[in-house]
Write a structure and sequence with these properties.
globular, single chain, seven-stranded parallel β-sheet, about 525 residues, 17 helices, alpha/beta
Length: about 525
């Protein structure tokens, strides 16, 4: 049967309504070959690159299956699992799932690294119909007990060859160990090297095979151009190309992360708005840069190959290879970011003498030579604005702490000083004077002091006198002294009193002592 329209697949009305909102009318070849068999529950082995429409090819059957077979959501339980290599691709698939299921009670959750896991855990706790994940964060959450895969009904492995390139093959095998044997499996890869074929045989059962030629669906709509330029000329050529009016939205690829950062700075000095996206940037920074590129806030997005797969931005007019990729297949993935959904686009490659070997491998892969364009019109000098350096914050001055002391002045007259003359000071001194007593001081004659002569004091002394006792003192309770007795507040003791009188007598001088000796003689 020939499926010329999406309405020919027998999709439920809410899905058809969602597809109508985004003007999905004519299915792509991979959608025509895949969707009917997937709706019947068959496994699939698909060889197709990004940009061919495979996301909708596996998403629509998943949504229809879950909508027709409702089940109560449970905490951490996943019904459909989609594993993809990059955060950008995971987020893209998640957004598409939400768009296709907008009129159905089918929820989706995306989990990936580079961000805090708490919001993701909260979403998982509410129950999950469709989970889109990268391998690392998925395994982390499984080990923590937040995700349970024993009830997965549908499993999708997207960009399997990219998984192999990024070293995720062992993680994939671990994930397979958590899945039930009875499930529907969809396996997609842009290429089919022997390791990928071996992996697919361990995952799928009696699959249908769908092959979409990787070059033709994309390359036939792309105007490929080649410029030969020395390494030190490439940036100048790139800037002059980007200043042309027909460049509406350009994606520039560099080989290294450092090269991407440097390129963004140089383009900014040339008056060209650009953002960078690569693996060293935080997830928030990558999402912000991609959002600015999508909404047109910036004209140019500079990326490394981490973004070659997973960036699905409408309206990219130019893809420019500032550096020729070492792997020929990467070239196809890069330029596939333009000419999406049958539209046209332009790819420009800047090739130096050192990169000619890699370029010959690319031409062998795509089975067509690319004519060399004249680079001379783009060699003109570009005026660069001076680079604005960010001002470094001034270092904070360290304040040396005085151990056991406050930083206030010791002899100042404000509250909190040791010898100041206001309330709260230790001795109540005014600056320069030691005997000026105010309320709260230690030796004055008002209530609350230690040695004054009014009730409540320890010894009831008046200033300057030691034996002046009044009622209410500590050891003198009534006139007459100790426990009602007379005297100076203490019980008389002749031995003690005689010793004190001896101590109070003035010491004799040497002359007095000599006089006494003479009298004795």
């Amino acid at each position: 049967m020939t499926y010329l329209k999406f309405t020919d697949f027998g999709l439920i009305k809410p899905i058809e309504r969602a597809l109508g909102d985004i003007n999905y009318v004519d299915p792509t070849p991979i959608q025509q070959q895949s969707i009917p068999s997937l709706l019947k529950g068959r496994d699939i082995l698909g060889c197709a690159q990004t940009g061919t429409g495979k996301t909708a090819a596996f998403s629509l059957p998943i949504i229809q299956h879950l909508a027709k077979n409702r089940r109560k959501r449970e905490t951490g339980i996943v019904r459909a699992l989609i594993v993809t290599p990059t955060r950008e691709l995971a987020d893209q698939i998640y957004q598409n799932m939400r768009m296709y299921a907008r009129y159905l009670d089918v929820n989706s959750v995306v989990v990936f690294g580079g961000v805090k896991q708490n919001p993701q855990v909260k979403s998982l706790n509410r129950g999950v119909d469709i989970l889109v994940a990268t391998p690392g964060r998925l395994l982390d959450l499984i080990q923590q007990g937040y995700i349970k895969l024993e009830k997965v009904e549908i499993f999708v492995l997207d960009e399997a060859d990219r998984m192999l390139d990024m070293g995720f093959i062992h993680d994939i095998r671990r994930i397979l160990g958590y899945l039930p044997d009875k499930r529907q499996t969809m396996f997609f890869s842009a290429t089919m090297p022997p390791k990928i074929v071996k992996l697919s045989k361990s995952m799928i059962h009696d699959p249908i095979r769908v092959d979409v030629t990787p070059e033709k669906p994309v390359l036939e709509f792309i105007d490929q151009q080649l410029f030969m330029a020395e390494m030190n000329q490439k940036t100048t050529v790139l800037m002059n190309i980007l200043k042309e009016d027909d460049v509406k939205k350009a994606l520039v690829f560099t080989r290294t992360k450092h090269g991407a950062n440097k390129m963004v700075r140089l383009l900014g000095r040339a008056g060209i708005d650009a953002e960078g996206i690569h693996g060293n940037k935080s997830q928030a920074a990558r999402q912000s840069a991609l959002a600015d590129f999508k909404n047109g806030s910036v004209k140019v997005l500079v990326a490394t190959d981490i973004a070659a797969r997973g960036i699905d931005v409408e309206g990219i007019s130019h893809v420019i290879n500032h550096d020729i990729p070492d792997v020929a297949e990467t070239y196809v993935h890069r330029i596939g970011r333009t000419a999406r959904a049958g539209s046209s686009g332009i790819s420009i490659s800047l090739c130096s003498k050192e990169e000619q070997g890699s370029w010959r491998d690319i031409e062998k892969l795509i089975k067509q030579p690319i004519p060399v364009s004249d680079v001379k019109p783009y060699l003109g000098n570009v005026k660069l604005m001076p680079e604005v350096k960010k001002q470094q914050p001034k270092p904070r001055q360290r304040v040396q702490k005085q151990h056991g002391r406050r930083p206030d002045n010791r002899q100042g007259g404000k509250p909190g000083n040791k010898q100041g003359g206001k309330p709260g000071n230790r001795q109540g001194y005014k600056p320069g004077g030691q005997q000026s007593h105010k309320p709260g001081d230690q030796q004055d004659g008002k209530p609350g002091n230690k040695q004054d002569g009014k009730p409540g004091n320890r010894q009831g002394y008046k200033p300057g006198g030691q034996q002046s006792h009044k009622p209410g003192n500590k050891q003198g309770g009534k006139p007459g002294g100790y426990k009602g007795g007379g005297g100076g507040g203490r019980k008389p003791n002749p031995h003690r009193d005689s010793r004190r009188q001896q101590q109070k007598q003035p010491k004799k001088s040497n002359n007095d002592r000599q006089g006494n000796n003479m009298i004795m003689r």
